[in-house]
Please model this.
Amino acid sequence: MKKALKTKIRGLDKSQFKRLRELTHHAKNLYNQTLWILRQAFETTGKYFSYPQMDKAMKQVENLEGSVNYKLLKAKISQQTLRRLDKNFKSFFKCHQDFKKNPCKYKGPPKPPRFKHKQYDNLIYDYQAFSVKDDMVVLEKGLSFSLPKKLLGKTIKQVEIVPLYRHFEAIFVYEDKDVVAAVSPNDKVMAIDLGLNNLATCVTNGVTKPFIIDGRRLKSINHHYNKRFAKLQSHLKKTRNRKWSNRLQRLTDRRNARIDDYLHKATHQVTEISVENGISKVVVGDVAKSLDQINLGKKTNQNFVNLSLGQFIDKLRYKLELHGIALEVTNESYTSKASFVDGDSLPKKYEPKKTHSFSGKRVKRGLYRSQNGILINADANGAYNILKKSNPKFSLEELISKVGEGILDWLHPYTRLKI
Model:
């Protein structure tokens, strides 16, 4: 089983740091140069070069300084850069062809891949382009760094070097032979409603009682960052007429690391509970599409964007797949307005031109009241409706038949997990 591990590269001396800067700069130049040629060819002929054609051509094309960008890197690294571009351009070309047939599916014509505006780009070393000696990763003569202790004795398949503002990160893809518990396909399903104060409200179809992954700590990290960032940037503009500094970068790096750590721990909790209860499918509401469709106000939208709930879904998908658990991302339109208790039908997608009426309504923050007066946690109501979107036959009656007495415990999550 292949896994990935990301770590900060430490212990580089000045010459090694400078060399990595040079290599990542060459990779950026090769990517942009090739992309420019592909875009020109596409605009002229409506076609694109295949990877073999691209690889052959770029071995001869010189840059403005008379050097060949392809040959400034190891052949294996240049090939990986071109393969990445080939994948991006193929995706664009496929969308472009589909747009001609079904323009209604898109907001506008698909745009080709963008040029890299930063000075540096990632370097990808496959297993043939690097070596591991004495617990050190050797990229080339004179350029090496320590292998993380967790990977000692593991088979490393790929190393990706990621250039950041004042340091580099390495992403290791390795073979892990450790046996993990696998969940066999069954009818046990969990649904998750993502939010701010309640990062993840999790319900099931009668498998385990609902619980909440607390999001207030995550929101606090983000709030502190925004406040501190605004103060430092304002001072910087007034005193030096600049928008960025090393201090702002350190603040941003720390904030990103803390949020990344929190989301990893949160998704680990959800995965553990899913495995323990034999849940074979997890359904999550697509927050990104919902934000595109409706304006929740400047402050709320900013919180959602900065908290990057899409990262939660990506991390959860990765962990669930290790155990054979499927993750389904579904449109969550109207799930917070419709009444699960009353069995309201749910439109498949957001329909701004239509007026939909639902049986219940939210009476206060965090509480939803059904038509006959039954109170249910508002986020739990949304999560149950997300589950219902995945399985339209699921209902309150089915839930009651599985859990029997004590149904109120299934409508109000009393367990709040703090990370």
